[in-house]
Amino acid sequence: MIDAEARKIAAEVTRRFVAGQISNFKFENQFPSSKDPVMYAIEDTLWCFYDDFEEHCIKGKWAVPDATQSIMRRWVMFLYSDEEYLWPTIRFPGIRPIQFGLLGKIFNRHKRQHEFLSAGDIEFWPFVSKESFLKAKENPVLLAGIQ
Description:
Number of helices: 7
Strand content: under 5%
Radius of gyration: 16 Å
Number of strands: 0
Number of domains: 1
Order of helices and strands: HHHHHHH
Shape: globular
């Protein structure tokens, strides 16, 4: 299920947060609610990159490496796409795979992760495959039509 209106708002809010233009508190307050499953997946993943108790932007001491910025831009590109989100529900999908210790194994988290990782090509998450990523990349929403 694609919620185009919510995705458009989420894409802009996420883009501004990733660029360090708005704080984590503004991100949380402006990110829309929706039943589109990618909305939860991206919001849940981005939660891993900020502090719940201190308002800040992800720059300066909170900055993420350039490689992570590039990955986050792919998440924004997905929100602007008309691609269906095809991954199973799991916590923090954008930072997979996660190494699990004994407790994770006891609670079968490694099996859930295996099921998740088997659903697509994690290198292109939230796109399910390289092909769906390239399709969106060839048809960008932002800057489309700029000469």
